[in-house]
Amino acid sequence: MGPLLELNNVSYAYHGKNGETDALSDISFQVFPGEFIAVVGPSGCGKSTLLSLISGLLSPERGSILFEGQADKSKIGYMLQRDHLFEWRTIYRNITLGLEVQHRMDAGAKERVDTMLKEYGLERFRDARPSELSGGMRQRAALIRTLAPDPELLLLDEPFSALDYQTRLKVCDDVADILRREKKTALLVTHDLSEAISMADRIVVLTERPAYIRAILDVKFAPGTPFERRNAPEFSNYFNLLWKELNVDERQ
């Protein structure tokens, strides 16, 4: 089976009054159907820029980004750091916002949304306002909104960063379970190494800006939730390996 997403020698720079700032340099990797990929790297190295390029919000200056072998990005969903739920809309109308904008609120889409609300514990909150939900429930609603148009690839830009630690652990398990049930492919950007290890099949390690790929680590655990992975004996080995890769430059 071929890759769902393919980045080939992608580079990008920001241009401003003070000149050019290189952000990403010669980035190449593939994402296969059903994979969960995490991207980690130092603050400001261009992780979110990478997601903007993959989603089509930005265009690479060099290289190519292909989705199913083409440049079309219409089957990609993007979940941002904040849930961005609108208080003047109910949870149901927040979730269906993307479908409304895309003029895709047909019977099949409505049935899909109803099913996800029921399966993921938000059915009785469908007419509630965002302020009536906990942080974890808001993130669940934001994920369902991202899934509602049925994308094939989800881009997750630090979606748990605004949550307290306990809620973050629970939501990680929720998101992993939902993505597994929906059989989705995902690419997660995070500063949290434990989060990356507990959720990902592979981890792409970026360097300082202009970022290039330092390493790509395979992560293998027995079947289980992200929380269960954190308690597995091999977890600390992966953490130490990832920490060393991220700090190579500081030791030289």
Description:
The protein is an alpha/beta fold. Helices cover 36% and strands 24% of the residues. The strands form 2 sheets. A 6-stranded mixed sheet has the order 5-6-7-3-8-9, sandwiched between helices. It has a 3-stranded antiparallel sheet with strand order 2-1-4, with helices on one face.
Give me some keywords for this one.
six-stranded mixed β-sheet, 24% strand, globular, 252 residues, alpha/beta, three-stranded antiparallel β-sheet
Sheet with most strands: 6 strands, mixed
What is the residue-mean pLDDT, rounded to a whole number?
91
- Derived from helix and strand composition plus strand pairing, the structural class reads alpha/beta
* Shape, principal axes of CA atoms: globular
N- to C-terminal distance: 40 Å
Give me the count of strands.
Answer: 9
Q: Helix-strand pattern, N to C?
A: EEEHEEHHHHEHEHEEHHH
Number of helices: 10
The share of residues in extended strands comes to 15-25%
Contiguous uncertain segments of 5+ residues: none
Q: Strands across the major sheet, in which order?
A: 5-6-7-3-8-9
> Over the alpha carbons, how many angstroms does the gyration radius reach?
18 Å
Give me a quick take on this structure.
The protein has 252 residues and is an alpha/beta fold. 36% of the residues lie in helices and 24% in strands.
